[in-house]
Amino acid sequence: MLSDRSRSVVQATLPAVADNIETIAQRFYRHLFDAHPELLDGLFNRGNQAEGSQQTALAGSVAAFATALLETPEQLPEQLLSRIAHKHASLGIRPDQYQTVHDHLFWAIADVLGAAVTPEVAAAWDEVYWLMAFALVNQERGLYSARGVRPETVWRPWRVIEKIPETQDVTTFVVERIDDRLVKSSLPGQYVTVNMLMPDGVRQPRQYSLTRADDGRHRQFSVKRVRGTDKPDGEVSTLLCDSVGVGDVLTMSLPFGDVVLDDSGHPAVFISGGIGVTPMAGMLSHLAQAGSRLPITLLHADLDEQSFPLRQQIVRDIRALPNARMHVWYERGGDSRLAVDGVHSGTMDLGDFTLPPDAGYYLCGPLPFMQAVRSALLGRGVAPRRIQYEVFGPDLWQADLDTSPSLGST
Ligand SMILES: Cc1cc2nc3c(=O)[nH]c(=O)nc-3n(C[C@H](O)[C@H](O)[C@H](O)COP(=O)(O)OP(=O)(O)OC[C@H]3O[C@@H](n4cnc5c(N)ncnc54)[C@H](O)[C@@H]3O)c2cc1C
Ligand code: HEM
Fold first, then answer.
1. What is the pTM of this model?
2. Which terminus has fewer CB within 10 Å in the chain: N or C?
3. What is the mean pLDDT of residues 162-186?
């Protein structure tokens, strides 16, 4: 909780900070990387830096946290903190690094806001920063200790034993563990961070959802090659798809991620677009392996059947589940050779599609797709807390914060 003294100062200065927070975030990262270029090697994602999405996510999260401290101090934005903590833990972030981030962030705040940052203002925002930092450090400590690791030991070597072309753009990798340390199995829906050595000698981490239930020795993930049209091609996805082969060793984190299957016995509805099917494939695989009898629905949208990654595995799992059904929407027309329950032409339209009562919903796909689906679900009376979503990048949507500033939500 903010002290009374800081509360009034934060209240008075929040509009100025919020108005300038994107500039502050940009200035902060430049200053941080000038002083600590090593953070760009194996920790920060330079694609997100180039696109500006990480700057926006950081700015949005601080503004949202400060707003919550003022407006709903008894209820901090748990989902926001949890998403960040899982991402941090998947990168092995250490508690001592919070001081470094603090120093550069506060340099940037003073640099951007100038004389407005009196000692009183700096002290009040310092309190906001450390409340957020301690909340994250605590969660991250819990995540590390639940896995019996330290930040330095989240990484493991895995050997590629299969490389399977899924579609023109998507490749599936099956990897096998090659060290003796204990590896806990993943929860359904989680991802790993793959840390790749790039041709220029810099390591670059990227997250990939696990697409099959673990047996403790093998893991599977599927990568969509990011093709640049007017921008550069995606560097890690291209390297993985083009250059990594059977026998190569990958450095991967233990599994993390807070969008996981709710195990309280509710029906589950998975709604995905394109490569967003990967966490759904992982969850379906866990359900099939556990012999679940729950009502399960998979609704998937894609360009056409040839573009639908992991379709054979998914159909197998759906057919193995006694109460599961699956519908697909293909933009290029409604032809299907798969044993699905419904094929629709065009983009996904939930229209009068019958949805099970009291279900949990899991969304993954392009942001506009998820925004449209979430709106449709809310329009059908689904409670927001029943809808979880995974974003394949820094979360610029923050739909879980219905009352907070939603940066980049258009
Ligand atoms: C939780 C989570 C789960 C994920 N799961 C999956 C999954 O299962 N499968 C999957 O395929 N992906 C998944 N992703 C996405 C994945 O982590 C990567 O973001 C994706 O593979 C692209 O990485 P890249 O290195 O190829 O692209 P990057 O090189 O990071 O490029 C990303 C974008 O930035 C642009 N860009 C890069 N450099 C510049 C520049 N200098 N100027 C302008 N623009 C630039 C590129 O053109 C591209 O559009 C997931 C992400 C998250 C966060
Ligand atoms: C209170 C302090 C901090 C806040 C508010 C914060 C906030 C965030 C947010 C919002 C994200 C994006 C999460 C997502 O949507 O996926 C993120 C990711 C990240 N954070 Fe932090 N963070 C903090 C401290 C730190 C520290 C101390 C480090 C270590 C140097 C760090 C390194 C990273 C990295 C490497 C990523 C992933 C970046 C990317 O993929 O582009 N953060 N953080």
1. 0.96
2. C
3. 92
197: CB partners within 8 A, 6+ apart = 203
Q: What are phi and psi of 299, to 5 degrees?
A: -120, 120
Q: Which atom of ligand 2 is nearest to the CA of 60?
A: 10
Does residue 169 line the site of ligand 1, with CB under 6 A?
no
* C-alpha of residue 223 to centroid of ligand 1, in Å: 10
50 φ/ψ sector (left φ>0, alpha ψ -120 to 50, else beta)? alpha
Positions annotated as catalytic residues are 98, 140
Q: Do 158 and 104 form a contact (C-beta atoms < 8 A)? A: no
pLDDT digits (tens, 9 = 90+) for 271-327: 999 999 999 999 999 999 999 999 999 999 999 999 999 999 999 999 999 999 999
Neighbours of 103 (CB within 10 A): 13
Can you tell me whether residue 218 is helix, strand or coil?
strand
Distance, CA 136 to ligand 2 centroid (Å)? 10
Residue 90: CB within 6 Å of ligand 1? no
Sheet bearing 155-165, strands edge to edge: 203-209, 191-197, 249-253, 155-165, 170-177, 218-224
Q: Measuring from atom 21 of ligand 1, which residue has the nearest CA?
A: 237
